[in-house]
Design a protein that fits this description.
42% helix; 11 strands; two-stranded antiparallel sheet; homodimer
Chain lengths: 222, 222
């Protein structure tokens, strides 16, 4: 499948590389591909990542979205709406938009707080801003490496959540998640349930802090 | 041990009955014991509960706290600070105060929002208001029945959290939780980590909603 991954950070890298490994064609969207490429040359991590993943092409948000049948929002939460506006509502219409971003506010020190919470969520804001996109919030509750390789922790016996208004879109995303290795995929309900998975982040960050590693997740016991 | 359970609702009932079953002496604190008793006469559930638990004596918040070596805050989050003020700071000084309450705001419909979150928590507010109490936040992430009988779900293979500034107090509370049947007790850190377990509630409420039962919890996979 042709997939756009918007965002070039840890999450975008992890998802893009995994998608290529699974046989998908991937365009990685960024504001200014030339600048990202040049910055990459000064960033050993991103430089190495680009060298290791030659199949992933850098593109503008709009080019990536235009190319894609499915779009992944892996940008910083604070920049997500701007990035998606740059991608263009008309290029998202009718497409599944997997939203992994989190509304984390690092401006008040660590651990970060949330700049949206309680009676709204970033997932909902994105769905409202792009009503033609089929938004599915998922994967935002684990560290990038686990998103792509859930089997690396506890034989994959832990849970990933789905929130979204479109049942068919959630079924397609669940199928993609299974191809990553996810076994326990929990459909929470409509996009308002994104509040739950976003507000879980402060607990997740404390689990990370207490254990000294982000290789941690929860399993829903029912 | 002599234990005060402040609050006569589902959580107070579940904890008080379990403590009696485990051999503790329990006073259940309420604003006005006579009114609670009379209201109980018109509330089949509470009437039956009182009849079934004759060892639990109703008392004022202050009487219960005075009697107790350990105090459990099982009041509604919105009334917790008032209830604890009525119990009296001098009767809480030096004692472990287990805080189970949640800052749930039902005034804007279902599901409830949180009236404290993000950069503060009810657990922290209680610790600040009663600096002499040894506050340990715990058990607030599961339904009342599971608090008392964790083995009823998944052979007890799920997690309860501890937040608090006093390591010795957390160790004592962990011991009490083990006597309830809790096997996986996760110390998140100081009382600021109460933000994590309180902000987890919106996710928990959605799990409940999706499954149609509160008999659900998470296990931390690490």
């Amino acid at each position: 499948m042709n997939i756009a991954v918007l965002g070039t950070g840890m999450v975008g890298q992890a998802i893009a590389a995994r998608l290529v490994e699974l046989g998908h064609s991937v365009r990685m969207g960024t504001r200014d591909p030339q600048k990202t490429f040049e910055r990459g040359a000064g960033d050993e991590g991103f430089r190495q990542w680009m060298d290791a993943n030659p199949a992933v092409k850098l593109a503008t948000y709009a080019e990536a979205a235009s190319f894609a049948e499915l779009v992944v929002n892996a940008t910083n939460g604070a920049g997500s709406l701007d990035a998606l506006r740059a991608a263009g509502a008309e290029r998202l219409d009718g497409k599944i938009l997997i939203d992994i971003a989190n509304p984390l506010d690092f401006s008040r020190g660590m651990p970060p707080t949330l700049f949206i919470s309680n009676d709204d969520s970033l997932g909902e804001q994105i769905q409202r801003a792009f009503p033609g996109a089929r938004v599915v919030k998922t994967l935002n509750t684990v560290t990038a490496r686990l998103m792509a390789y859930p089997a690396l922790l506890g034989d994959g016996q832990h849970t990933v959540f789905l929130s979204g208004n479109d049942a068919a879109a959630k079924a397609e995303v669940a199928s993609l998640l299974r191809s990553f290795g996810w076994q326990d995929i929990f459909d929470l309900g409509d996009i308002t349930t994104a509040r739950g998975v976003e507000m879980y982040l402060p607990l997740w960050l404390r689990l990370w802090g207490a254990l000294g590693t982000g290789m941690v997740n929860v399993r829903v016991v029912r």
